[in-house]
Amino acid sequence: MAPAKLKIGCAGLGRMGKRHALHFLNRTPRAELVAASTPDDTEIQWAKVHLEPYGVRLYKDYDEMLQQEGLQAVVIASVTTVHAEQAIKAIDANKHVLVRKAPLHQRRSLAIRRRRRQTKTAPQGHAKMDAGLTGRPAIFRSQTCDMLDPSGFFVAYAQFSGGIFIDCSIHDIDLALWFFGQDSIVKSVVSSGITAVQPNLRKYGDRDNAVGIPMANLVPIYEASGIRREIPPNYYGRFEQAFVNEANEFTHACLEDGPLPMKLSGAVQAVKIGCALQESLRSGDKICFDKTGRQVERAML
């Protein structure tokens, strides 16, 4: 008897939706991509070429896709502003859900995508800490950097993304919680930033700030002009395998009723911290929390 496969649908076929769909179609052996939805005609045309010939049923209506017979799970890759709404609908329809932002609701297997946990180096560092080889962490530093994209996509996306701390730095926040403990209570947060290369971000209350460079590998290149390292051309170049790993990990958890890599409460905590940092960025104020993690007007003495 052939092993069971997880029948999954993909919501959204934009920049990342296409990639998630292809990951489940071609690079997740125990999953079967059976459906995809998008209201965008251009994305539907792309799907007719790259998905439909392989038996993937296409929908322009997300709610209609959820009703497809045999559908067991949904990966949500639509615009950020509808992640929570679509996740809750899928959970209410008794589907497993893989989503990037954490809705405040849980039933079935709800996995929050955190791609940094799926890279090579982060799990190695965490394993050493768990084994007692590095001691208890006291200071944690992490940052997310992308190469400059002159196309204007980043600026246009800012009106939907929720801001740099919620959309980008959420992964750094998640790593900090992973190393310090998902139940850690934050005392206060403060943030600052500038619009150094994308001034149009200001109209969305957002910022850009590049202070580091991610490396593609550890091989230095010595040239007459100096020493350099190769870097990935974009975030997908750095995290492609991490996205594939999470697709396979999610599929295994659903089929085997196995443990998820993080608690929902930890994912919600990361989003709360990201929102507080974004608020601090726009207001210039320090955001404080009480001993239960509830945001307060000022520091509690």
Verbal overview:
The chain has 301 residues and is an alpha/beta fold. The protein has helices spanning 15-26, 41-50, 62-66, 83-92, 121-130, 153-161, 164-167, 170-180, 235-256, 264-283; strands at 6-11, 31-37, 57-59, 73-76, 96-99, 110-112, 188-189, 220-223, 226-229, 287-289, 295-296. The strands form three sheets. The chain has a six-stranded parallel sheet with strand order 3-2-1-4-5-6, with helices on both faces. It has a three-stranded antiparallel sheet with strand order 7-10-11, covered by helices on one side. Strand 8 and strand 9 form a beta hairpin. Helix 8 packs across helix 10.
Task: Draw up the topology in text.
Blueprint: E1 6-11, H1 15-26, E2 31-37, H2 41-50, E3 57-59, H3 62-66, E4 73-76, H4 83-92, E5 96-99, E6 110-112, H5 121-130, H6 153-161, H7 164-167, H8 170-180, E7 188-189, E8 220-223, E9 226-229, H9 235-256, H10 264-283, E10 287-289, E11 295-296
Parallel strand pairs: 1-2, 1-4, 2-3, 4-5, 5-6
Antiparallel strand pairs: 7-10, 8-9, 10-11
Helix pairs in contact: 8-10
Quaternary state, please? single chain
Strand order of the largest sheet: 3-2-1-4-5-6
Question: What best-fitting shape do the alpha-carbon axes yield?
Answer: globular
Report the total helices: 10
Proportion of β residues?
5-15%
Helix content: 25-40%
- Rounded radius of gyration (Å): 20 Å
Give average pLDDT, whole number: 81
Largest sheet: 6 strands, parallel
Low-confidence stretches: 103-109, 210-216
Amino-to-carboxy terminus distance: 64 Å
Task: Provide the structure class.
Answer: alpha/beta
What is the tally of beta strands? 11
